[in-house]
Amino acid sequence: MDHVLDSTPGTYALLLALQAPAELQIGCLGRIQFDSPFYLYFGSAFGPGGLKARIRHHLQPARRVHWHIDYLRHKADILGVWYSPDRARLECTWANAALAHRSVSPVSRFGSSDCRCQSHLLAANRLPTLSTFRRRMRNVRPSCVSIRELQVTRGLIA
Question: pTM above the 0.85 mark?
Answer without folding.
Answer: yes
